[in-house]
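Ligand-bound model needed. copper (II) ion.
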Amino acid sequence: MRRFPILSPSLESLLKISGMSVLLFLVTGLILCVSDETKQEESSNLAIQETQGKMNLLWMAILYPNMYEHLHKGNWIHAICEVKPSRNLEAGKPQVNGQVLFQQVYPHGKLNAIFYLDGFPPDSNAAGRAIHIHEFGDLSMGCDSAGGHYNPFKVNHPFHPGDFGNFYPQDGKIRLSMSNLQPSLFNKQAILGRSVVIHENADDMGKGNNSGSLEHGNAGKRLACCVIGFCKEEMWVKAHEELLKTEG
Ligand SMILES: [Cu+2]
Ligand SMILES: [Zn+2]
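Prediction:
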């Protein structure tokens, strides 16, 4: 018995081609949709970044109106912390003096810092010394009135923005630069007006297995401290040149 094709051969191949076209169309559509979503995600990330930038500018204009114009141009801004021994430091403890300098490009740059400190016992090269940013710039009772670690995000130590870790003085001196640091000079959680504290002991970096470890790293007495404030660029340049000389 002759079997009649349901459709004529030409119509059948036409349908096959159309079916493939539809499939191709759907796949292309799907790819376009996915790439569209990626684009949308990218543009929403950009939008968030832009909004954050605008919010930063707004905060800056409110908090530091005189600096606003300067910063709006995307310039570097600089800050200095003039380190002095704590007012109520016991006799016989190391008298640490020096400077901590900060540098950051407004509005999206990361913070860089230079630690330039003297006065550690020259024979204690192996001893680590913790340095942190503390909440207050209040040194009315020496470094003890500077409060606890600056902790805007309510996290445990050593994840506070100013947990700089341990420093190892060489011949009584610390000469060190650090880059891409977490704290900032100009957002809502700015460290300006807060303090840098240099401790007698090493930071246990949260591994001390006690509550103090998760709060302050059991770094011991506060030897020296200072309040962070804006400064001229030349202060940074000078410290940077000194650092280069030391590195030889
Ligand atoms: Cu501290
Ligand atoms: Zn901390």
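The chain has a mean pLDDT of 83.
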